């Protein structure tokens, strides 16, 4: 089945999310759609999937124009979508999830579960998915859940599969498996649109590449293009993917964590006897697939989450039982993994956001009044210093792009007197330009003698910044290795295999 | 250096319920103005449809259409005209003092609404839907009445002690809610409703109890003694007017509220918790304690309203002295967008409704029309899409995109 998108334009108010985008997909082809967050990839796919109606342009299947008023129409036309966040019901079995919405029925309209099971088994065997139709979704690893999503589409006879950032939640090994599955599917005639911002994966698997920037198609480079070529196309200027840094000058062990155990809200043990220390002038990165206790670890260090057992010391001071305010005032800077939730107040101005954790004392407070003059002066200084793109300090934080929002958080934390910086996913959902800038700032903090702890699920980021790497799996540190460790080995550790 | 281009990012879309709630609490002045207009319009429809003259004239519409139309006009003019002359300026008065009296009455009615409204507004901005002003006023009344009838002190001091008693008693009531919310996670809506019942019954109980507040010559009805003259809020403009020093309390309250919310670090933290409690927590703020503080200060404003009510009348008090202020305060806070200036305007509007309702009745228009107008205004504010659809206002979303786009252009030009 051949798919063609012709001159698709989609506007939101004054913003043109898709500007005359054209793209074709031949049968059995893997077509990568490369672009930064906010470039318009997801909008385009939502148009294709019938979730949004294009303002201009048309969709053609086998050279016939079609129009989709909803995902139902798109599915009926043979288009399947695997979303970044899975649309599965955790307590249902694989077979139940796969047939949900178009259940095979027996006499009297009862659910024909054996037929569903057979369907799953057949597809699973055909592509070597190795999925048990009777397993409950909640018991499956993330990679397997993703294969269930793919089965769901194939069960509805999808000829075109759209994979939206499918590798964000996978270990490197699971990513490799997915790449293999994609190739097998393509060989059997299924066409795939692969949406991603990860250059390595694009190079590995694509037959064709389309780069989108600011809602426009900017290039269709050859699949053999180098990573830096692709990055430059994506960002629109020369990009240096390597963070320049000198060898670390190690100082005292400032952040020391011993035997830390932390429970989540449902009393599951999320951090299990973790011990490590970070020296001044060093970056320790915690690598691992999302959901292996990193969030809870970061929250425990900040004092947001109660510590079950173990200790946390900063510069010799015991902060195990301290409140968040005490931890912050002891010289710990914190960049949360979810800036919109934990790092910013969207309805506050940038100036207000830059004093979020400084309202108790000078320079922001003069007695019990806000020192507005100092606040605005500091805000303007930080906007300059951290290159925050905004018309003024009075702009609301929610009106900024992701990268600029993150720069506000980074500026606030790095402008305080710090001993330790804890940064969780410091560049998630941030454009490449801002990633470069934020990485430089983190390395600058390290070079000025601060202890830096990075928690990241992006292996590229870990390798770019870390002096040492601790890999976390199911709440435990699998091992702490030096920064020259190979990807393969780190990947194995991320799957829980000790070094 | 050539300016770098940065990709635009579409802001994440909120869940509908969340964004609507935020829109309601944020109080866009244009939308509120249009809601008031629409409320008055539908109120006019009510007046017209239920007016006998109009009904009669319209049954002979064919015979005299211009008369039928003019009855409609005259009914509306009589009704809202009476509201105006009852609440702003009486054009038919013989002298200026009588002419301006309605305005002073509006101010007198508005003062407690503004004070209690500020209390509710404060909790709105901390993200709490506090409907406990009624209970706080009841308890504040109990405190004020005890001081004004059972204790005897020199003038002014007596009044100040009575005001303080009202404020402190109300604060106790607010703090109880705060502690229940912070320590047990109980929802403030349910807690405040229940505390309202408890407070109302408690006040009645005190009024029945000879050892507490029941009047000396008391019979079976729950009613207090006359407050001591020394405890009363004196007349502000002399004996010709009913307006008393409660207005000064209200002016002070407005200033304190403005300073607290817009200038002080407390208000900054209150607003931070209200907009994003998880970010506040990560910034080292004890969100639970903030809730307790907010409810306590909010109740103090309600206590001022209680003092205004309890210390301004000559006769003994019953529970009816609360006069629905605690409930109207919620509406006033909503209507005023929880801002100091907005609450003043909303309080004046509702004060005018109270002041003008009797002259509407004299003009032959049922004052219940005002109840309809009041309720409709709030209804329209509570459902922003209705107003947007009727007046074809733009959805707020695209504005954000435009602003984001402008932000980028601004930087590029630089």
Topology:
The complex is a heterodimer of chains A (499) and B (414).
Chain A: E1 3-12, E2 15-25, E3 30-34, H1 41-48, E4 56-61, E5 64-66, H2 71-76, E6 79-82, H3 94-99, H4 113-127, H5 142-155, E7 160-164, H6 172-187, E8 191-196, H7 199-205, E9 208-213, E10 216-219, H8 227-235, E11 253-263, E12 269-279, E13 282-287, H9 294-302, E14 307-314, E15 317-318, H10 324-329, E16 332-335, H11 339-343, H12 350-353, E17 365-366, E18 369-370, H13 372-385, H14 402-414, E19 420-424, H15 432-447, E20 451-455, H16 459-465, E21 468-473, E22 476-482, H17 487-494
Chain B: H1 16-26, H2 29-49, H3 52-59, H4 65-87, H5 96-125, H6 133-150, H7 157-184, H8 188-208, H9 246-263, H10 265-275, H11 277-282, H12 287-310, H13 325-335, H14 340-362, H15 368-382, H16 384-391, H17 396-413
Structure in words:
The complex is a heterodimer of chains A (499) and B (414). By secondary structure, chain A is of the alpha/beta class. Chain A has 17 helices and 22 strands. In chain A, β9 (208-213) and β10 (216-219) form a beta hairpin. In chain A, α14 (402-414) packs parallel to α15 (432-447). Chain A is globular, with a radius of gyration of 24 Å. The relative contact order of chain A is 0.10. Chain B is mostly helical. Chain B has 17 helices and no strands. Chain B is globular, with a radius of gyration of 25 Å. Residues 1-14, 397-405 and 407-414 of chain B have low confidence and may be disordered. Chains A and B meet through α10, α11, β18 and α14 of A and α10, α11 and α17 of B.
């Amino acid at each position: 089945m051949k798919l063609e998108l012709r001159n698709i334009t989609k506007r939101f108010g004054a913003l043109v999310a898709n500007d005359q985008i054209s793209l074709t997909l031949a049968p059995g082809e893997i077509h990568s759609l490369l672009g930064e967050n906010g470039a318009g990839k997801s909008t385009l796919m939502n148009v294709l999937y019938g979730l949004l109606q294009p303002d201009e342009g048309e969709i053609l299947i086998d050279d016939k124009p079609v129009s989709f008023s909803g995902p139902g129409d798109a599915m009926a036309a043979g288009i399947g979508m695997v979303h970044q966040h899975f649309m599965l019901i955790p307590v249902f079995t694989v077979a139940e999830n796969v047939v949900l919405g178009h259940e095979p029925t027996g006499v009297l309209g009862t659910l024909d579960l054996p037929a569903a099971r057979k369907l799953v088994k057949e597809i699973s065997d055909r592509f070597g998915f190795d999925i048990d139709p009777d397993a409950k979704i909640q018991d499956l690893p993330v990679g397997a859940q993703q294969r269930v999503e793919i089965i769901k589409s194939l069960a509805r006879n999808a000829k075109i599969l759209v994979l939206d950032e499918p590798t964000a939640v996978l270990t490197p090994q699971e990513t490799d498996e997915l790449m293999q599955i994609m190739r097998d599917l393509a060989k059997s005639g299924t066409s795939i649109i692969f949406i991603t911002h990860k250059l390595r994966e694009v190079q590995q698997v694509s037959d064709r590449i389309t780069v989108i920037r600011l809602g426009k198609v900017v290039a269709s480079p050859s699949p053999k293009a180098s990573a830096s070529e692709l990055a430059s196309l994506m960002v629109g200027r020369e990009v240096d993917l390597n963070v320049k840094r000198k060898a670390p000058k190690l100082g005292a062990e400032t952040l020391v964590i011993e035997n830390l155990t932390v429970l989540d809200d449902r009393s599951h043990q999320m951090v299990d006897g973790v011990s490590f220390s970070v020296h001044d002038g060093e970056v320790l990165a915690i690598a691992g697939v999302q959901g292996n206790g990193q969030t809870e670890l970061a929250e425990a260090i900040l004092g947001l989450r109660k510590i079950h057992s173990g200790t946390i010391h900063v510069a010799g001071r015991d902060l195990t039982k301290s409140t968040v305010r005490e931890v912050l005032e002891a010289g710990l800077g914190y960049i949360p993994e979810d800036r919109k939730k934990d790092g910013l107040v969207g309805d506050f101005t940038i100036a207000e956001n830059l004093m979020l954790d400084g309202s108790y004392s000078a320079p922001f407070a003069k007695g019990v009044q806000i020192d507005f003059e100092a606040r605005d002066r500091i805000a303007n200084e930080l906007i300059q210093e951290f290159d925050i793109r905004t018309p003024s300090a009075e702009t609301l934080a929610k009106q900024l792009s992701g990268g600029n929002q993150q720069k506000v958080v980074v500026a606030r934390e790095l402008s305080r007197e710090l001993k330790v910086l804890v940064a969780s996913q410091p560049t998630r959902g941030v454009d490449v330009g801002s990633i470069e800038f934020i990485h430089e700032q983190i390395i600058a903090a390290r070079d000025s003698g601060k202890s830096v702890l990075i928690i990241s699920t992006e292996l590229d980021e870990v390798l770019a910044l870390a002096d040492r790497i601790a890999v976390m799996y199911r709440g435990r540190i699998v091992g702490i290795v030096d920064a020259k460790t190979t990807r393969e080995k780190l990947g194995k550790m991320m799957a829980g295999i000790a070094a | 250096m050539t300016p770098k281009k940065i990709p635009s990012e579409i802001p994440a879309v909120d869940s509908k319920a969340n964004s609507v709630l935020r829109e309601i609490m944020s109080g866009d002045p244009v939308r509120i103005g249009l809601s008031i207009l629409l409320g008055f319009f539908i109120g006019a429809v009510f007046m017209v449809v239920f007016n006998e003259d109009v009904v009669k004239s319209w049954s002979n519409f064919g015979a005299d259409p211009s008369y039928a139309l003019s009855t409609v006009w005259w009914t509306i003019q009589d009704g809202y005209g009476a509201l105006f002359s009852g609440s702003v300026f009486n054009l038919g008065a013989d002298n200026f003092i009588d002419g301006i009296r309605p305005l002073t009455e509006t101010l007198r009615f508005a003062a407690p609404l503004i004070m209690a409204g500020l209390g509710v507004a404060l909790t709105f901005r901390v993200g709490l839907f506090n409907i406990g002003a009624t209970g706080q006023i009841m308890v504040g009344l109990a405190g004020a009445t005890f001081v004004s009838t059972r204790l005897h002190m020199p003038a002014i001091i007596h009044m100040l002690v009575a005001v303080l008693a009202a404020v402190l008693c109300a604060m106790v009531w607010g703090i109880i809610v705060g502690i229940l919310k912070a320590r047990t996670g109980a929802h403030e809506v349910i807690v405040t409703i229940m505390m309202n019942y408890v407070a109302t019954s408690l006040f009645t109980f005190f009024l029945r109890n000879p050892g507490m507040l029941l009047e000396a010559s008391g019979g079976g009805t729950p009613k207090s003694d006359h407050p001591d003259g020394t405890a009363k809020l004196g007349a502000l403009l002399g004996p010709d007017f009913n307006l008393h020093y409660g207005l000064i309390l209200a002016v002070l309250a407005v200033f304190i509220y403005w300073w607290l919310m817009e200038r002080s670090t407390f208000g900054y933290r209150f607003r931070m918790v209200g907009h994003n409690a998880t970010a506040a927590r990560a910034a080292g703020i004890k969100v639970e304690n903030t809730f307790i503080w907010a409810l306590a200060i909010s109740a103090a404003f309600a206590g001022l309203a209680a003092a205004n009510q309890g210390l301004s009348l000559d006769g003994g008090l019953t529970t009816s002295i609360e006069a629905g202020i605690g409930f109207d305060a919620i509406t006033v806070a909503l209507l005023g967008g929880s801002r100091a200036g907005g609450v003043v305007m909303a309080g004046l509007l509702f004060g005018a409704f109270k002041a003008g309702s009797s002259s509407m009745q004299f003009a032959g228009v049922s004052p219940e029309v005002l109840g309809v107008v009041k309720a409709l205004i709030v209804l329209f504010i509570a459902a922003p899409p209705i107003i947007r659809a009727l007046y074809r206002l733009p959805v707020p979303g695209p504005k954000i995109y435009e602003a984001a786009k402008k932000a980028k252009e601004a930087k590029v030009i630089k």
